Amino acid sequence: MSETNAKYQIDTEENRAFMAEIREDLLRFGHQFPSPQGGSYYLGDDGTPWKDRPRETWITCRMAHVYSLGTLLKHEGSEALVDAALHGLMSELHDAKNGGWYAGLKADGGILPDKQCYAHAFVILAASSAILAGRPGTQELLKEALIFYDSYFWNGEEGLSCDTWNTELTVLDDYRGLNANMHTVEAFLAVADAISNDEYRVRAERIINHVLEWASANDWRIPEHFRKDWTPDLECNKDRPDDQFKPYGATPGHGIEWARLITQWALSVPAFEERIGVVGESLRQPAKYIEAAEKLYHRAITDAWNVDGAPGIVYTTDWEGRPVVHDRMHWTLAEAINTSAVLYRATGKKEYANDYAQFLQYLDEKVLDHVNGSWFHQLDRNNQVIGTVWPGKSDLYHALQATLIPYYDPSVSIASAVKKGLKR
Fold first, then answer.
1. Active site includes 398?
2. For the whole model, what pTM was predicted?
3. Which of 98, 127, 179, 366 would staple 142 via disulfide (CB 3.0–4.6 Å)?
4. Distance from C-alpha of 328 to C-alpha of 332, rounded to nearest angstrom
């Protein structure tokens, strides 16, 4: 193995050093995100804030999570940064009148409308990570976030979460979506690990079972958008195929991300089973979930990786697997790095280690910004930087996790794994 190849190969000293270098660059890059009241500014290409853009709750939560990880990793300045983001969540972004959290605030301080399940899932993730980082006030933040989420988003009868309320919480939108449910699974697993409450692990399983039913019936391309009765709306946003949060068609990056979360859940089952002392049908068969995760991963990689004459993962495909939006998003690559590593840990199959090395080489050659730091968030089909969907570099969440998840226990949420030192 050449020195260059070793840099991209999982478990080599060269790869560990490469990941550590990327991680420190990312953590340094994000230091200017806090606004005076704590809400996260959207970061520009060189890490300076774009103060004319909204300060959004989901980005603020992600930065709280990132610098909670930074705190656990002893990155200098992380405590103050996570505390700033937490202050934003406890003050300007919090709706003291109606409850919950605004979608965000406009640059002039006006309220962005609606209460988003997506954003509230990230509040739970941020609070869970901040608890592990030992930050003050986070127990109360998590308690409030869980109570609010249970009251307005979680549907215990369906085993799924709804998507969007109006700001006053009087009207529930008919749209149902899996993006918010995916990050709900992430948040529920983080809570279960952080505060040892396995109720949320059971909830994650219920969501996962729905997703696998829909995916297996659709050739392992996951429907993203649904009507009020949870029937798939496969033509949603066909006229706006590159929508930032609701693109038309299948999103291979989500298939990859679901594969990782499902594998994490499945790997956590033995310890969970021992704790509760009850063995259910699904708990006896964690291997079937990992096999399903492999099918999701393979479908996404087959449809999207290196399929249009240039390296990279296309953003979306139609329901036959043909590319629709050819742009490459940085978060998709980050999840491909994570999931290939996690599946390698779970199965021992060399193909996943080989995929990981390809993704790392592509990251180094096309997606890492070696001048300004961080990762380019959007490239076109020729791997030229563009910003039609994701201008600038809004946050560090996906990228930072991709430097950690490959080397920590894949059965445990990343902040808990870092806190406990559960390295692989």
1. yes
2. 0.97
3. 127
4. 8
